[in-house]
Amino acid sequence: MPRQSASGAGTKTDAVIEVHDLQMRYGAKDVLTGVTFGAHRGEVLALLGPNGAGKTTTIEILEGFRMRSAGTVSVLGSDPAHGDEAWRARIGVVLQSWRDHGRWRVRELLNYLGRFYEPYSTPTQHRPWDTDELLGLVGLTEHADQKIQNLSGGQRRRLDVAIGIVGRPELIFLDEPTAGFDPHARREFHDLVHRLADFESATIMLTTHDLAEAEKLADRIIILADGHIVANGSADELAREMSTAAEVRWTSDGERHVHAVTTGDPTGFVRDLLATDADAVSELEVRRASLEDTYITLVQRVESGQDQGSEPPLQEVLS
Fold first, then answer.
1. What is the helix (H) or strand (E) element at residue 266, kind and residue range?
2. Mind listing the pLDDT tens digit of every residue in the chain (319 residues)?
3. Which residues does the UniProt record annotate as the domain ABC transporter (predicted)?
């Protein structure tokens, strides 16, 4: 389940990302059309959407690697289009793949990269991570002295993560972060994300096609489709906003029952059910629409032309 962090409520003063009316055009094609959202310190934000929705363009604009066509963007208090080296030292990027040098040893590479962040250490944020501590965080302690070319695919992915956060960033961008991870490594990585957000107060923005992962990790989910935001909220909030029926399942006198609640909250039905004969009811279960159900429904609405998209005011998405 996503964390319920103290920063989840958020205020204007702890805004790390502020985007208002972001637009991007390539030639005659509009890729982003009036995107508005924000992110707070310590928040885990998932950016979802089908291929071509504008996710990569949005992330590259936030990272300062691409100039926007219009709109205002503030990342860590600066316009990323004009971010200097001190600003960039506060940001970590974990790409889908990193062109590494196979003859480097893991510890040597992290020591080397960490030195670039030392000049940007502050009294409140020491940089970089201690290498041994970082190796422990990403689960590479036993492989610290191995050459990169001898690591497995999952171990290389852990190294990608270590490289992305070696400077102890305040804002971390994760692109398909657990690709190549086995289930155990994926769970360890989820714990790492929670630690970075909860104990380091890092803001984390991730893109993934693994909707179950987004549902587990993210405090808030933004769904992009056709260049605009079609949903912005927690997984539970998005599910409640959809008209998808909730299912109530239970066993009574040895028989399994299923009831679809198409309107309102299923709590009322459950209350009435238990009031009738609570002792006979067992294995009670309420199933709401999953994030996958919600995602597919929203994207299909856009593709069919039912949703033209509208952006809430910035003060609303930051509240």
1. helix 266-277
2. 555 443 334 444 589 999 999 999 999 899 999 999 999 999 999 999 988 889 999 999 999 999 999 999 999 999 999 999 999 999 999 887 666 678 899 999 999 999 999 999 999 889 999 999 999 999 999 999 999 999 988 888 889 889 999 999 999 999 888 877 788 888 888 888 999 999 989 999 999 888 888 988 999 999 998 899 999 998 888 877 665 667 888 898 888 988 877 666 778 888 888 888 778 888 888 877 777 777 887 887 777 776 654 444 333 433 3
3. 17-251
DSSP 8-state secondary structure symbol assigned to residue 217: H
Cis peptide upstream of residue 266 (ω within 30 degrees of 0): no
Q: pTM of the predicted model, to two decimals?
A: 0.80
Beta bridge partners of 44: 204
Residues 86 and 120 sit within 8 Å (Cβ to Cβ)? yes
Element (DSSP H or E) covering residue 237: helix 235-241
The encoded tokens of residue 232 equal 């912005």
CB 154, CB 185: distance < 8 Å = yes
CA 43 to chain centre: 9
Q: Which helix (H) or strand (E) holds 258?
A: strand 255-261
Classify residue 81 by its DSSP letter: G
**Alpha carbon of residue 13 to chain centroid:** 21
Which H/E stretch holds residue 63? helix 55-63
User: What is each CA distance from 239 to 35, 89, 99, in whole angstroms?
Assistant: 22, 37, 39
Residue 64 tokens read as: 């300062």
The tokens for 38 are 């924000």
144 has which bridge partners? none
Q: What is the DSSP string of 18-56?
A: EEEEEEEEETTEEEEEEEEEEEETT-EEEEE--TTSSHH
85, with CB counted inside 10 A (0-12, 13-18, 19+), is exposed
